[in-house]
Amino acid sequence: MISSERAPLAGTDPLAAGMGAESTPLASGLPAITRYLEGSHGNPVSAGQKAADAFSSRAVFDEMIAQMLELFSDGTVSVSNPCVVEDADTSGTDCSAEGNTDPGSEPDGGGDGGGDGGDGGLIGGGLI
What we know:
The protein is mainly alpha-helical. It contains 2 helices and 2 strands. It has a domain at 21-45 and 52-84. 20% of the residues lie in helices and 3% in strands. The chain is globular and about 50 Å long. Residues 1-24, 84-128 are annotated as: Disordered.
């Protein structure tokens, strides 16, 4: 056993609870926290990452970017793709439609992805 000091705010959930954050689909304002139903801990904008994690999700990444842009531009956060967000109302949304979910793929044995990483397709992809 490792002897250590208590760290009541260590990790995402204790910090969110301490801030009084509510789940994004249920929140009436900020602070809010979005919990995703798929994907991996890293994402395509993780520092030093040259290739996507095997289990990363394009649908989750798109939702993260949409929420971040809305937060920075309007000061609000809403769910645009309920298929990948915990507690979201999916009625009226076809979660089997292409692009609404993306559980990723099995790892290929990997390495660092090689190459220089490029721009990740974001500049040419219309996000900026």
